[in-house]
Design a protein that fits this description.
The protein is 33% helix and 23% strand. It has 115 residues and is an alpha+beta fold. The two termini are 25 Å apart.
Length: 115
């Protein structure tokens, strides 16, 4: 049942118009052949700039040389509603959420107020 719910969410997110406009969709992944690390829906917190805090970005990194150091090459703002829905579903499906305890479902206080 959990898998069906998650698959339905992913299909919903992928079919939304905002996702088709993105260069990045799907889940986080690393492609060692292309030396890329892709992470969708990264939420900015504690940036020191209130204009960025709470916003979501899809980010892409390129591997530097043969090391495991990556350089940020793309940061594309993402629809916050799509990201919040994905985060909430992942937290609902995750059996170990001890790393997010004390946080409002992994969201900032501003996000919790807008729901």
């Amino acid at each position: 049942m959990r898998q069906l719910t998650f698959i339905t969410l992913i299909l919903f997110v992928l079919s939304s118009p905002a996702v088709f406009a993105d260069d990045i969709s799907g889940g986080p992944r690393v492609d060692f052949g292309r030396k890329e690390l892709i992470v969708p829906c990264v939420q900015i917190v504690n940036s020191g700039n209130p204009d960025f805090d709470g916003r979501f970005f899809d980010v892409a990194f390129k591997q530097r040389g043969k090391s495991f150091n990556y350089e940020l090459v793309l940061g594309d703002e993402e629809d916050p509603e799509a990201c919040v829905a994905a985060i909430e579903q992942m937290l609902a499906d995750d059996e170990d959420t001890t790393d997010t305890e004390g946080e409002a479902s992994g969201l900032t206080e501003d996000d919790a107020e807008t729901e």
